Amino acid sequence: MPLITVNSIELCYEERGNGLVMLWAHGLGQTMKDWDELMSHFEDRYRVIAYDARGHGRSQILETEDDYSQDLMIEDMLALLDALEVDKVIVGGHSMGANVALNFAMRHPERCHAVIPVAIGTGSTEPAKWKEYWGKLARLAGEEGIEAYVDGLRETPSWERALSHPVIGERVTQSESANSPRAIANIIRGIQRKRPSIYELEDKLKALIVPTLVIFSEGDTPVADCSKYLTKCIPAAKLVEIPASSHWTQLEMPDVFHKVIEEFISNLGSSAESVGENIIF
Predict the structure, then answer these.
(1) Confidence (pTM)
(2) Can you tell me the distance from the alpha carbon of 209 to that of 49, in angstroms, rounded to the nearest whole number?
(3) Rounded to the nearest 5 degrees, what angle is found at the Cα of 53, between the Cα atoms of 215 and 182?
């Protein structure tokens, strides 16, 4: 995979296909490999780009907590699009990457055909409890290593269901294990514990004019309420609840996930009669 220097750091990325551009950002402790199935599914119709976020995978690992913030992640995304000469994009992301994608769309709506946040908002509900938990995970990663950190993730049921899943469990675990524990600790402290909750973004969400598809698993309770809240606030938003059990919707039920995205994109050029509807499979 090529490396490209953007926003003063090196990012590893992959792109496939031609046409309308889709850009995908992964979640905390994962890599662009989360999007392999999606890239294979869409590459015959679109130019699909995925990348390792700063501090993850084969992208540059930075040394301090101050090197990681949601604002820096948004700047990385913009700089990557500029470097690849992409003017306008369908931008999507999972978990931490979903927060980056959504905030990118609010900050740069002119660069977005649409935004697709998946499993967004962990920590928005019961923020004090989650900040304490994020602190624990950062300590585990920084002091005891990735294995202890992954064990800590198991305390959240929808993450435990992913890690123990007969099909995707080993894959999620391998992705987590491929990352630097020091980087993960700094990312948690710099991003997860400091980013604003979804509920703090109400005015910006109500002003967002970009068509939005919010996707989550029915078993992913930490993101359910804030996913529903997004669709109440964003004027051109649709909510889709997929009958998956874990936080990794796109890996657990890829066929349904891809179908939902296909239908959403096919309506972008129409009057989008389905905007505002909630869909439960």
Answers:
(1) 0.94
(2) 23
(3) 115
